[in-house]
Design brief:
The protein is built from six helices and five strands. It is α/β, with parallel strands linked by helices and about 140 residues long. It has one domain: Rossmann fold (3-Layer(aba) Sandwich), CATH 3.40.50. Strands 2-1-3-4-5 form a five-stranded parallel beta sheet, sandwiched between helices. The two termini are about 25 Å apart.
Length: about 140
């Protein structure tokens, strides 16, 4: 673990040996392999109890959701075959998936993007590039509080 990750871990309690978190599964819908790798690396180091499944299109995410129901969704707004807003609408139309927490993510940090994400049913907005600190804070709010 590098110095930055250790600092984040100390501040947020992610390596507290007395703190056990239940295993969780996250579906990350992201077409950029670098962004997916960043989140995968951060989770391995800072939240190893979370299993990550990555789909690079909305269609693949919908196919994945037919066979598995994750505890949490992280959805990029700009996907090659759809946008995150429409993807979440399609997911929410399925009763078994209607209540899975979903967070939008985007390189576009405009206030309007975050506002529209919340209006469309996302519980939070996570700006890219994702950092260890921002990811841990969001996960703790969405999954563990």
């Amino acid at each position: 673990m590098n110095t930055i990750d250790k600092g984040v871990s100390r501040r947020l309690g992610s390596t507290n040996p007395g703190l056990t978190r239940p295993a969780k599964k996250m579906l990350y819908v992201e077409d950029n392999s670098i962004n997916a790798m960043i989140v995968r690396t951060l989770l391995k180091r800072l939240r190893p109890e979370i299993t990550l499944v990555v789909c690079d299109t909305g269609a693949k995410a919908q196919a994945q959701l037919r066979s598995e129901h994750p505890d949490f969704l992280l959805i990029d707004i700009g996907l090659p075959d759809t946008n995150g807003y429409d993807l979440l609408k399609a997911i929410r139309a399925q009763p078994a998936l209607a209540n899975i927490p979903a967070v939008a993510t985007s390189n576009d940090h405009a206030h309007e993007v975050a506002s529209r994400a919340r209006e469309c049913g996302f519980c939070e907005f996570l700006a890219k590039p994702v950092t260890g600190d921002s990811l841990l804070r969001m996960l703790d709010r969405v999954l563990y509080l």
